[in-house]
Design brief:
The structure holds 2 protein chains of 2 kinds. Chain A is mainly beta. Chain A has one domain: TolB, C-terminal domain (Neuraminidase, 6 Propeller), CATH 2.120.10.30. Chain A has a 4-stranded antiparallel beta sheet with strand order 1-27-26-25, with no helix packed on it. A 4-stranded antiparallel beta sheet of chain A has the order 2-3-4-5, with no helix packed on it. The longest helix of chain A is centred in the N-terminal third of the chain and has 12 residues. In chain A, about 50% of the residues are buried. The C terminus of chain A is likely disordered. Chain B has 2 domains: about 200 residues, no CATH class; about 350 residues, TolB, C-terminal domain (Neuraminidase), CATH 2.120.10. In chain B, the strands form 7 sheets. Chain B has a 4-stranded antiparallel beta sheet with strand order 3-27-26-25, with no helix packed on it. A 4-stranded antiparallel beta sheet of chain B has the order 4-5-6-7, with no helix packed on it. Chain B has a 4-stranded antiparallel beta sheet with strand order 8-9-10-11, with no helix packed on it. Chain B contains 19 helices and 27 strands. In chain B, helix 4 runs antiparallel to helix 12. Chain B is of the alpha+beta class. Classes of the chains: A mainly beta, B alpha+beta. At the A-B interface, helix 3, helix 4 and strand 22 of A face helix 17, helix 18 and strand 22 of B.
């Protein structure tokens, strides 16, 4: 009873659970233009799911699996049954490919052409991230229990909390649940003690380990985190695919409006995060995003943003690469490392870029 | 429509949410809290001691209220100018002593005694004023010291006269009547106090000395910079205070005809409680006679009530002290949060359901997106910021307004030579030339202006008739938007909203209430009159050649309307297009007899949904930062050509929105269209396919002349 009253009061005042405050980008996340100005690697529609094997970059475009050799344009290797939603490469060069709504298929290596559609009786319909823990084991994030990865926006608006992380033995097909009840796990990488998972709708990174409760590594991110990757010089890289926004947070707390909006309006025109904003005139606009004197202000509130965060060994941000509201390299969903270079896929801009991290000497 | 939606709609239609915010903008809304407290005190103590409000109780109370009220006004005057006067209790005692000594001991005529008392009060005030106003000592400490000094003087003199005062019997009928007589059951003192209170009310609220006091109290430095003699004003407030206390002392002397050692002790605290409780702020700049009187009545009822309930004087002082603390706390909280309350309650969204049958540009048809405007040549890049509207004179020179309040001019034929034709101030919006070549301009925040060919700026009008039931003053023009000139020379212009200023024009969209109106200025008798009210952001206006009707847009309602201002249909309003797919801005004539209509942006489905949910929008304005508020997508608009009957002929888009993301106006002239944008930094010049190269806005006067002639001959026939 008292809880309900406090909840009402907090709802009126916008406090506690009803607070729509969004963390600002400051400190290591201070905006810059380094992603916007980065060297382009190649252009590819809906480029996503980068994985590096030697000098080759594997990536996807819709259902197509592509490979780009050093300084070459990507070439289509195979077209799968549905959109590719995750790719991981083993040290020996085998690929585990997440097929949206279907499961996981293996290409190359000793488990070539194996398919995994179910884990422990649960459909693997939303494989969002995969990582090899050896040649015979993979770990996989299932973003949502009932929606494919393409419906991520619907999962956000439904306050989705049905994601899970699994370890699959490729030899026996046996799956072990490592964590469940996650708000769209979207990125996965190995740490010295277990796995780190980026939980998109909870704006945080957690450490998960079989049989243990998840532990928060980094919280209050100013955006929705996507893929995680090991960094070139230790540490980690985090792709942040869209910014958080006060208006979205507000709408998420308006159940009636939310349900009518998701029922009657096309997802592209929702009040919600996007990989690229400003694509049509039916998209809603926020006050400060008005084009004034011929320009969009870089600090304008927009539905999309380009952000790549460099994390240290403890998952604390130390550096970041931005493409701001007036830029176009938005919607960074995937990141990988090739030697000393960082390769990032700006899915919203249909482009992959190369970033050269600052080395110990300080030169770029 | 569901039942819930019908309810929301009815509520927004019949319950005037917006009035709450408007009342809060009024200074008198401050009085709500003390007034409520007053009612509460009257009810509580009236119930506890029925005797208090009996005839005798009222008589006694009224006499005290008169004295008390005058003291409260005295302190209010000082506090409005930012000071404080703690010495009033001592001055009060000294004045009462003077008056009674004069009357009872020396048997002076009453007028002389009164003059002496006023002189003593004024002198005490002048001492305070001199020290605080001119020598700039701290008011609090200074009056604390004079409190003790005046008290010492009183206690030195009083014993010499105390017995004689009690024994003396003044021979003055007026004096006795003042003390004991009554009119309509109330002592004369009450009427004296009422008259003085009214005088002070007028001084404080409606005269220069009063405004100067408030200015000094509100911001001493600004008042000084504005040329107010700050020291003199402060000095005078203490003199006024002394004089008022003297009058209160005279009434006191007449009522009680005696003195004690405790006369006036502790009075400063109870008067201060009254004033603060009434809502006069301790920081200065805010206070009124009404507040002082309310506070005085509350404190008196409280004091007397507690006494009648048998509480000891010390206990009642304790209660009073607590009330003072509460008053000070309330004062601080109210001052701090008033604007927050106002901010969160001023925006009051209404229910607006836009028609669902609007054509969808994505599905083709006349509105289909094209790139026809890409051949537009950008002029004046960097010369101008925010040319909302443009105009072309008889010689082909190009004019525009700007957000800096200038009228810019570019000379024909190439429009590279730029000059500021005139400076008006305020954002310059809709503009048109009249028959004599004067440029009539709507100026945001200022009204309707005219610039003659000799560059003289003439104010035509800045106010209209105030509507009968409006709470905020809607007579001033806040956002004159677009104008057109009827064949008979009358200027019809739209005021988009009277609840928001120019800089917040988009906020009116979140409200979507009928805050706008069409106003007519008649140059023949220089009168201004609202001809049509309650319109949802009326924007572009075009007078039709029939001389009795005009077309206007309602931006947030996405419709084009026709209004008859004359003729047999006078007063009729009719929708010409009720389902535009975007938000219309200005409308103007085309050379082929059709109308150019600018859409500043297209309707977004989510926004349409939000418009039917006033509560959602209200919560949004309260919780979300203004930069993040949901707006229509006015980054991509288009031009549309329509017939005067409302048939849509063609749409013209700038697909990549490089030059014209948000076209707010366009004017055709000699084969070209000149396109402006209120947040743009350029004017587009676009060759109109198939346009009449001879036609310009100025040619209409000749056709109007012909139309008028036919009309007169028809009438004659």
């Amino acid at each position: 009873m008292i809880g309900a009253i406090i909840d009402r009061v907090e709802k009126y005042l916008g406090r506690g659970r009803h607070s729509i405050a969004v963390p600002v980008m400051d400190g290591p996340l201070h905006p810059n233009n380094r992603l916007e100005e980065a060297q382009s690697l190649f252009s590819l529609k809906d480029v996503d799911n980068l994985a590096c094997v030697g000098a080759n970059i594997w990536c996807s475009s819709g259902p197509m699996l592509l490979c780009a050799a050093q300084d070459r344009q990507p070439e289509v290797i195979e077209t799968l049954k549905s959109t590719i939603s995750a790719i991981a490469a083993s040290p020996e060069g085998a690929l585990a490919i997440g097929v949206d709504g279907q499961g996981i298929v293996i290409r190359g290596g000793k488990h070539d052409r194996k398919e995994f559609t179910k884990v422990d009786g649960v459909a693997l319909n939303c494989p969002t991230a995969i990582v090899f823990t050896g040649e015979n084991t993979i770990a996989v994030c299932n973003g949502s229990k009932d929606k494919p990865a393409a419906d991520w926006k619907r999962d956000l608006m439904a306050h989705g909390k049905s994601g899970s992380v699994w370890e699959i033995d490729l030899v026996s097909g046996k799956a072990t649940k490592i964590a469940g009840g996650l708000a769209f796990p979207y990125g996965l990488c190995r740490t010295s003690t277990g796995y780190a998972v980026s939980e998109a709708w909870a704006h945080r990174i957690i450490a998960v380990k079989a049989g243990e409760k998840p532990r928060e590594l980094l919280r209050h991110l100013p955006g929705y985190p996507a893929r995680l990757s090991q960094g070139p010089n230790g540490g980690y890289l985090l792709a942040v695919f869209a910014p958080r926004n006060q208006l979205v947070e507000f709408v998420l707390r308006e159940p009636e409006f939310l349900s009518v909006m998701t029922r009657t309006v096309h997802p592209d025109n929702w009040i919600g995060p996007k990989l690229m904003w400003g694509q049509g005139f039916k998209e809603p606009m926020q006050g400060a995003a008005l084009k004034t004197m011929g320009i969009i202000k870089p600090w304008a509130p927009t539905w999309s943003y380009g952000l790549l965060v460099v994390l240290d060994e403890e998952f604390q941000p130390i550096d970041s690469y931005h493409s701001r509201a007036d830029g176009r390299r938005h919607g960074v969903t995937s990141v990988t490392v090739r030697g000393q270079e960082i390769i990032a896929a700006a899915k919203g801009a249909h482009e992959a870029v190369v970033l050269h991290p600052i080395t110990a000497g300080g030169a770029q | 429509m569901s039942l819930a939606e019908s309810f929301v709609r009815a509520r927004s239609k019949f319950f005037p949410d917006h009035l709450i915010g408007e009342i809060l903008t009024k200074r008198w809304s401050d009085n709500a809290v003390p007034f409520a407290a007053l009612i509460m005190v009257v009810v509580v103590f009236g119930a506890l001691n029925p005797n208090m409000f009996s005839a005798y109780g009222l008589f006694d109370l009224a006499g005290q209220v008169a004295e008390y009220g005058l003291m409260a006004i005295a302190l209010t005057v000082v506090m409005i100018a930012g000071g404080i006067d703690l010495s009033i209790g001592s001055v009060f005692a000294l004045c009462a002593l003077t008056m009674l000594t004069g009357m009872n001991v020396y048997n002076l005529p009453m007028s002389v005694a009164v003059a002496m008392t006023l002189a003593v009060g004024g002198l005490c005030g002048a001492v305070n004023g001199l020290l605080i106003g001119y020598m700039r000592l701290r008011a609090f400490l200074t009056t604390l010291v004079t409190l003790i000094m005046f008290r010492s003087i009183y206690e030195l003199i009083m014993p010499n006269f105390a017995t004689k005062i009690v024994l003396g019997f003044p021979d003055s009928k007026v004096w006795n009547e003042l003390g004991l007589g009554s009119l309509f059951g109330l002592p004369y003192a009450v009427f004296v106090a009422i008259i003085i209170a009214i005088v002070w009310h007028i001084i404080l609220s409606r005269s220069r000395p009063g405004w100067q006091m408030a200015a000094v109290g509100g911001s001493r430095r600004s008042a000084f910079n504005a040329g107010i003699k700050v020291r003199r004003v402060v000095f005078m407030t203490y003199v006024y205070s002394g004089l008022m206390v003297a009058i209160a002392a005279i009434l006191y002397g007449a009522r009680l005809n005696g003195l004690g050692t405790d006369t006036g002790i502790g009075l400063e605290i109870s008067v201060l409680t009254a004033v603060v409780l009434g809502g006069t702020t301790l920081g200065g700049g805010r206070g009124s006679v009404a507040k002082a009187m309310m506070g005085a009545v509350i404190v008196l009822i409280l004091q007397n009530g507690l006494l009648q309930m048998g509480l000891l004087g010390t206990t009642s002082a304790m209660v009073l002290g607590m009330v003072l603390i509460f008053g000070v706390w309330l004062d601080v909280r109210w001052l701090k949060n008033r604007h927050k309350l106002l901010n969160s309650s001023y925006v009051s969204p209404a229910y607006l359901k836009l028609p669902e049958d609007a054509p969808d540009p994505d599905k083709g048809g006349v509105y289909a997106v094209n790139d026809l405007l890409s051949t537009s040549q950008p002029l004046a890049i960097g010369d101008v910021e925010g040319p909302e509207d443009v105009a072309i004179d008889k010689d082909g020179n190009l004019y525009s307004g700007s957000r800096h309040g200038n009228i810019h001019r570019w000379l024909a034929p190439d429009y590279t030579k730029h000059e500021i034709f005139a400076h008006i101030g305020g954002g310059t919006y809709g503009m048109n030339f009249d028959k004599d070549g004067n440029l009539c301009v709507c100026v945001g925040g200022m009204g309707l202006y005219m610039v003659t060919p000799d560059r003289e700026v003439v104010k035509l009008t800045d106010e209209t008739n105030r509507s009968r039931w409006s709470i905020i003053d809607d007579s001033r023009l806040r956002l004159a938007d677009d104008l057109d000139i009827a064949p008979d020379g009358r200027i019809f212009f739209s005021e988009a909203t009277y609840r928001y200023s120019v800089h917040d024009w988009q906020v009116d969209m979140l409200e979507a209430r009928g805050n706008g109106r069409i106003i007519c200025y008649d140059p023949r008798d220089k009168s201004t009159k609202t001809v049509l009210g309650n319109r949802i952001f009326p924007n572009g206006i075009v007078c039709l050649p029939d001389g009795e009707s005009l077309l206007f847009c309602e931006t947030w309602a996405c419709r084009l309307m026709r209004f008859w201002y004359d003729g047999p249909n006078k007063g009729k309003v009719e929708a010409v297009i009720s389902n535009l797919p975007g938000y219309p801005d200005n409308i103007n004539r085309a050379s082929d007899g059709n109308i150019w209509l600018c859409l500043i942006g297209m309707r977004a489905p989510v926004l349409d949904l939000a418009m039917t949910r006033p509560g959602f929008r209200r919560r949004m304005t309260r919780r979300v930062a203004p930069a993040n508020w949901l707006y229509p997508n006015i980054n991509m608009g288009c031009l549309v050509k329509i017939t005067p009957e409302g048939e849509v002929l063609e749409a013209y888009w700038d697909k990549d929105c490089v030059n014209h993301p948000m076209p707010t106006s366009c004017k055709e002239d000699r084969g070209h269209l000149f396109i402006g944008g209120v947040s743009n930094n350029r004017i587009g010049k676009w060759p109109v396919p198939g346009a009449n190269p001879e036609w310009s806005e100025h040619t209409k006067w000749a056709t109007y002349g012909r139309a008028a002639a036919t009309k007169t001959s028809e009438k004659k026939a």
